[in-house]
Amino acid sequence: MPQYPRHPNSLVQLLREAQEQHGWLPRPLLADLARELGLTLAHVEGVASFYRFFHLQPVGRWRVLFSDNITDRLLGSEALMADLCQRLRVKPGEMRADGRVSVAATSCTGLCDQGPALLINHHHVITRLDAQRVARIAELIEADTPAASWPAEWFRIDDNVRRADVLLGQPLAAGEALAAALARGPAAMLEEMKRSNLRGRGGAGFTTGTKWALCREAPGTERVVVCNADEGEPGTFKDRVLLSRHADLVFEGMTIAAAAIGARQGLVYLRGEYRFLLEPLRATLQRRRDAHLLGTSIQGHEGFDFDIDIHLGAGAYVCGEESSLIESLEGKRGTPRIRPPFPVQQGYLGRPTTVNNVETFCAAAHIAVQGGAWWAAIGAPKSTGTKIHSVSGDCERPGLYEYPFGTRIGRILEDCGARDTQAVQVGGPSGVCLSAFEFGRRIAFEDVPTAGAFMVFDRSRDMFEVARNFAHFFAHESCGFCTPCRVGTALVVKRMDKLAQGHGSRHDVDVLYELDKLMHGATHCGLGATACNPLRDTIAKFRPAYERHLKSLYFEPAFDLDAELSVSRRITGRDDPAAHLEAAE
């Protein structure tokens, strides 16, 4: 494996390499690394403690992580995890006394179409778990059989492309799109991107052509192209398939962006759960270098020098936000930056940087070949082109479905074989929960926007438990930087757990409403602002699911925000929502 430069900007990658060698990160090792990089031990420990895949305490030679997304739970992951813990004689979240094994849960692993799934030592992925596989896994771990010798079928990861359109069904030859973009020239390529009205596929939906133009026009001589492949939104796995089937197209789109904005450096931020893709992606990059599609004087164009490196994340949902991702690329904790300045002005190492999603770069490559008007003619007026949906949950055919924007929710449900559907969570937990009355709505930025997740729940499911799972996810993934998010997500979990245990009342539901209001306008970044989206939607649309968990229906005083803030003022001497939440903590 290539060694990363011994530089502070490479700290996250150096920590990952050290852990792969030692199994965990003992303090003397961190101290040595700090001295070598000219950093304080506190700084290195602070970075290591931020990412859930880094371990400052031993976790055993065998680290087993069960995916804990709601779709894995619906398929029985909790019972399977309990079974494995019993067989291995280990408590969840703890290391066995002999130091050989630990078993725990982790956030969604991007394998919702073939769950339940788990990770072995953050490297090996096992899909389609059942009782028989769990029993055999326990035997192999006890026998210390190397994971490379386990049944190959267990590690099979299917692409499950169910409906292909432009991006999934029209392959381009390596170099074809780049040749078209170079023939147009940078200015004309930017105009084609603007004409296409391609909007970012990572969720925010900012116009790609405008982002590239702003980056090109920003002061500075060194520009950077970054591919956000950290698809940590539960229920999303489209980028996994694009990177495994169409990696050339992703890298081609990045190279086209480099030509358009004048960049020489490209970086892919690959989520830690996709460690199994690292070697194949590096091999693809080397083939492109050998074919003069990367490197110096690309395709014979003197002065067009551009290359791509891959950085592997270490388990942090917040790093899907572009400024957090850049912080991580710079070897820091993934804390979101205050904006402005925006990344297109001052991004990676202070350089103008464009950050785009995997799917966005694939679309850009097709636009380079077919032109902006062609793309703009597909989909809806304000949402041009196609969108890939990661469909999972209660349906016969989970997998990827690509449709033009403007497609009805009901059409997707029909195609995936969903029956007796109660709700659909579009865009992941931070998106929107739709009831059966809304299945006539359409996927589009002007109606139902999405980053790609499409989770289906039939009428046998408890939507309160769905929202509770999402609440635990956000509380676990909060970076802890700001009080409204750090404390607010914990308070939401506390109330939801109280309801789940049968000790709650309508007063608790009222408190949840008020917490949503507080967090929505007071958090540092989008994680806290959207953390209560599933809570708000399910209370409004599936209120009986909450009523069933109430201890009683007797009257309790309504949640009085003014009274609570008055108490907060006396305790903290401050008059703001953050102070109120801090007092509540």
- CATH superfamily caption of the largest domain: NADH-ubiquinone oxidoreductase 51kDa subunit
Largest sheet: 6 strands, mixed
Shape: globular
Q: Nearest-angstrom radius of gyration? A: 24 Å
Find the CATH topology of the largest domain.
Rossmann fold
Helix-and-strand structural type: alpha/beta
What is the annotated CATH architecture of the largest domain? Answer: 3-Layer(aba) Sandwich
Please give the number of β-strands.
16
Estimate the strand proportion.
5-15%
Strand order of the largest sheet: 5-13-12-16-14-15
Average pLDDT taken over every residue: 91
Percent range for helical residues?
A: 40-55%
Number of helices: 25
Describe this structure in words.
The protein is an alpha/beta fold and 585 residues long. The protein folds into 5 domains: 43 residues, no CATH class; 91 residues, Glutaredoxin (3-Layer(aba) Sandwich); 213 residues, Rossmann fold, CATH 3.40.50.11540; 74 residues, Ubiquitin-like (UB roll), CATH 3.10.20.600; 121 residues, NADH-ubiquinone oxidoreductase 51kDa subunit, iron-sulphur binding domain (de novo design (two linked rop proteins)), CATH 1.20.1440. It has 25 helices and 16 strands. It has a 6-stranded mixed beta sheet with strand order 5-13-12-16-14-15. A hairpin with a 2-residue loop joins strand 10 and strand 11. Helix 5 packs parallel to helix 6 and helix 8 runs parallel beside helix 12. The longest helix is centred in the C-terminal third of the chain and has 18 residues. The radius of gyration is 24 Å and the shape is globular. The C terminus is likely disordered.
